[in-house]
């Protein structure tokens, strides 16, 4: 199994980062405007990237200001069955975000492309929150 992991440091309180990662307003400004999200265990978040299908992530873990875990239940076939987690910690008003996208079956070209795009996601998250 393969895993993508990235870390970024955001100069903002952890609660602001958590809210951005769990709300329509936040994810709509960072990832895609076409979405349905709710910070609720069991809810299926939906993201439309205009690729001909809806990416669906079931919320399987939420620990406020600490951890978010989603399980992909519909998307590109390489994503289905994978999980995405956001680990959060704060020190001196800087929030560390550790993003993991794991349970990939193999390292493919799509895996490598997604690895790049997750890094860009964290960059947009940082830019949105800090500005």
UniProtKB/TrEMBL annotation:
Boundaries of every Activator of Hsp90 ATPase homologue 1/2-like C-terminal domain copy: 11-130
Cited Gene3D superfamilies: 3.30.530.20
Pfam families linked: AHSA1 (PF08327)
Family, similarity comment: Belongs to the AHA1 family.
Name the UniProt record assigns to this protein: SRPBCC domain-containing protein
């Amino acid at each position: 199994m393969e895993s993508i992991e990235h870390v970024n440091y955001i100069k903002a309180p952890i609660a602001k980062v958590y809210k951005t990662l769990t709300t329509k307003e936040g994810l709509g400004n960072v990832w895609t405007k076409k979405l349905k999200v709710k910070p609720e265990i069991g809810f299926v978040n939906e993201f439309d990237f205009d690729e001909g299908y809806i990416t669906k992530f079931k919320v399987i873990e939420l620990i406020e200001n600490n951890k978010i875990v989603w399980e992909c239940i519909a998307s590109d076939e390489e994503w289905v069955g994978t999980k995405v987690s956001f680990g959060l910690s704060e020190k001196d008003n800087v929030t560390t975000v550790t993003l993991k996208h794991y349970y990939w079956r193999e390292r493919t070209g799509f895996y490598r492309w997604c690895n790049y795009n997750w890094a860009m996601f964290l960059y947009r998250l940082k830019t949105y929150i800090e500005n």
